[in-house]
């Protein structure tokens, strides 16, 4: 990734999150179903069992479709813009594209959260009419939260491309 | 600097020819719109382009040449180079593609004949972005901006690209299969798109719109009679939700049925949303009617309504919850008798209790006799009122809300009596309490000042204070009971109004468009890297990123006269405690564009 950079080579960084752990799924399912069986034992109502099944299925589907992020990608095309995309465990992809004239800078911010300091990479957005003020901050890699050494690598490559495209 | 060329996917397999498009000002990029095939006469090409330029306000030019050599077409290359002299441009693009290879080759010639200065890494200064022409033409980028609002330099590049393709619709009318002098290739070359039904509907809609606008003007003339503008009539009609809803619908119809074509995207979406939600409203209303009039439900409703019409309410105190089938005027009577006794173990002041109880009982007696007078006509009235459901579900709901309001009018009256009595008592108590402590309310300074009273003033004041204080529980209990009944009614009416408002403001057309044709409403674009070989320019695929459903609702919601709570919870509680009359739902006047 280092070395001689071509201005237009689109640079793509993908950070992968750990996959859905089978053991956790089994533990949760067993918990819910044992609880449902216990309630059924006392109430003798089969609706409890069917509702437990439906609840488990619905919960799992919602989790893999809306919550569990599989990998996040940052694609920089110098002179066009930056594209952020997160892909969920069910295959759904949600993408945002930020044009180059709206992008002010890419920086690493540090935040103090309880007892620890966390680092995150973020994009500063500006309004093309007013280039000096930062209108919003878009944090990257929210779900996978890579560590500082990984962020620094990404940061350096991004800065080289941004410097060339200005 | 990097040169970006937006190339339509439909022209990937087009025969060799001239590239026609537009240079995007301020961004060093070009949009290719179509390919003009050989043979052509340069004079005719120039004439055609200038005609289109005046028609579409888009500055179309010849961008360069496109060559996809087939067998037996060698020698094209030199011909292509000579073309750049016929169409003098600042920058002349030469795109070429060989069958079997994925990437294009691209060369840019500047008008002094020299090729663009190349870096040591060859053709990497050019990016080719492929786009689906039909989808980009039909799509609308959000947030929607007015045409010509921003200067071109500040406008986003993608916005300009979308705008260019959308405005160049007349360019796509001529095709390579036509018999004219020019043969063009664009998205229509894959198959001409048209629908007979759509065209017929468009032709038929104009006279229908004119007729409906005439009907609407007739309605407005009826509504403008002097007699309807008298103060009492205006006041009543502003309180009845049916009149409000019908006025609101009339405004909607004026928007939808105007014979003028919608100029901007937002106007078109507004018209379409109103029209579709009106149709759905009518359909739901007809469904309701068909359900209501089957199996003689109307008469069953009338039978239950007459006894229930003496207001069906549930009691507030725990040991008085009764079933809804019992006659509730009777229930109210029992409630009052309970209040006149020793309610919940509290000891009331007997005399005041009897007075208040008898007063309210007499009112109920009047109400019951009124209801019994009306009872033979209730079924007929309900039958005709139920027919109003064919005007829409919102109408039926508004009428229901009005009927409920009329039938529970006596609860409203009781509430007002109880509240006024309680309010007077509270004010008296607070003023006499100040006297008890030796203070006075200074109206001039709006604050509490100390004051020295005479002995007889103090004596009478203290006496009155004690009387009012010991009569407080009785009045407070009556007030509490009737306020709670009133709050239940207000809640019920609020729910009906909220659902009417929901039906009115839901943008069904926009939601349907988002589900069935997601490319029409675009939030942005997505890029995918197609081909990245050394020696060829970078190829990217641009796809449309559809708008999120929540943004669709937020952007295209029809503004309505929504009711929302006027006071915050704290203010409401304070008003209840002091005894002020509460009107919790405030109606916003509809926003007009």
Characterize the quaternary organization of these chains: heterodimer
Strand content of chain A: 35-45%
Largest sheet of chain A: 4 strands, antiparallel
Give a count of the beta strands of chain B, DSSP E runs of length 2 or more: 15
* Number of beta strands of chain A: 7
CATH topology of the largest domain in chain A: PH-domain like
Helix content of chain B: 40-55%
**Major β-sheet annotation of chain B:** 11 strands, mixed
Physical arrangement of strands within the biggest beta sheet of chain A: 1-2-3-4
Radius of gyration of chain B over all CA atoms, rounded: 38 Å
**On the 0-100 scale, what is the average pLDDT of chain B?**
79
Overall body shape of chain B: elongated
Transmembrane segments (chain B): 274-293, 355-374, 381-408, 457-481, 487-511
Keywords (chain B): Membrane, Transmembrane, Transmembrane helix
Protein name (chain B): Phosphatidylinositol glycan anchor biosynthesis, class Q
GO biological process, one term (chain B): GPI anchor biosynthetic process
